[in-house]
Amino acid sequence: MSSMRMRTIIVILSVVLIQLTGCSVNKDNKVSTPVNKDNVEAGIEVQDDTRVTIISPPIFSIYLSASPENSTVVGINSRSFSTANEKVLSELYPGYKDINTSFINNEFVVNTEELLKLSPDIIFYYGDNQKNELDKLDVDSVDMMLSKNRDPEVMTIEWEKHLEESFNITSENTIEKEWETSNNKANELLKNNFTKKKGLYIFSYINGKVTVSGNDSYGDNFFNKAGIENVAKGIDGCKEVSMEQIYEWNPDVVFIFLGIPATTIINNQTTNQDWSLIQAYKNKAIFDIPQATYSWGAPSADSPIMPLWLISKTYPDSLSRDDFITYLKGYYNRIYEIELKDEIVEDILKPKKVKGK
Q: What region holds the Fe/B12 periplasmic-binding domain (predicted)?
């Protein structure tokens, strides 16, 4: 019994995916701030070579944008990489492929014996499912599930502040400031009278099953910021729907977070499903959601970019592709302090490949 207790933290994959996805850089501008060392939620004392473990996948992007000097990620959930762009990660954290991922499997089961072998100084996790087991370990653990709010703006600002408090640092360029800039720009772009387009946000499209993002989901919040009407607004959270329902909604534009590439739909190559009947197909307005430090379809350090990308795809007369790329490069310069090369930008924005091609 003790072996089983030490070996596993049982987390239901579907629950974790809904929680996490919707339904080494030096920062010279960081300075020390007072911290309560007796309360990890208020902050921990960071010493040289702080060994960090990240169980919650999107938090790696927050770490990349706000990480302190003298810290090393020694363990991480591999989903932090599979839902990101390899070229971007290589620019920001060249040794990321050497980070240990073997302590946690694809079902989010953590082997605590292997985790302890990494000698972590601090563990970032997400929610009560993992808290009970981690509390038994003699390691500072920080829960990044701070609230039930589904707005990516609120979530990413809280994540950034919580991480900076934990590492006893502050940043001059913050995600909070970037949200203000992004919101102001989106409002400016959308202020003129225009016909609001209907959008469908596909949370996942796997094995022929289409799960959409409904009311108060991450996708719904992104749509609101981009001036797009969510056709699935009548659904709470994320739910599987039929093609007949999609025909009835008849969206003008479709965005896909997880699952098959958009080109499969554009070429109408899905099995026993005919997408040619909807307006988005006729408009060739079906898009894969890009991945950079993490997928833009879920809360991450890249989230302030997402509404503007949505505008550029839905209302290209309001924000051209070239203008969006200029904004993207500026964002990465401010938040990550790197100059994005054109080839990496194109790799971020290109459609997903069909497996085997």
A: 51-318
